[in-house]
Description:
This protein has 4 helices and 3 strands; from the N terminus they run αααβββα. The protein is mainly α and 234 residues long.
Amino acid sequence: MPKRPPQPYAAAPPTASVSASRSAPTGNDDAHWDETKQIIRDLIAEYSTSDVAQTAKDCLTLNAMLEDKQREVVAAADAQIDALHDQIRAANEACGAATDDLQAHSDHIAQLETDAAELRRKNDALTAARREAEARVARFRAEADEQIDGIDVVEAHRMEEVPKIQMQIALYAKVVGIKWDYDASVGGMLKGEVAVPSKGVCRQFEIDSNEHGEFDVANELWALMEGKQPALAC
């Protein structure tokens, strides 16, 4: 192929070719990058004896170095991206575990709150029952005090009546002449002795009140006092 004479712009390669060599071809840029390199090769073949050819060679060498460097940078970036992905995956797993632990703690706290509410309810019920029991105790104590006061009054009245009753019994025994044996009169048995004024003697008697009514017992005692033979007395 005949060489063309140098042109005025030969000292400065076209801007489009140089700028295209500054970035590595990717994707749809592959065809444009191959076309650019082919243009550079054509320029080298056409201007092999000029400075333009040397400049084109230098451009190809620099572009090759840039491509190698870019591949190194891309590989390093891919490694960093993979490491970041691993870190993100580990962080997501840790976050998931922390979320599960937080949910477990939340469930435990909710159960504790439920238990505490139940205990408060039972405590309120026990407090109400205790207050009611205390009120009943106070009421019963007041009623017992009233009953004790009544018993004391009755007892005092009885103590006042005992001497009178004793005197009446003594007077009755003296009038009718009957002397009761209280120690031997147990289990319904009536024992003692009765005076018989008409004969000037005392006769002992023993009557079972369980077998005889009060009317029969009274008649028997009157019969003994009149000196008659006992019908019930032993």
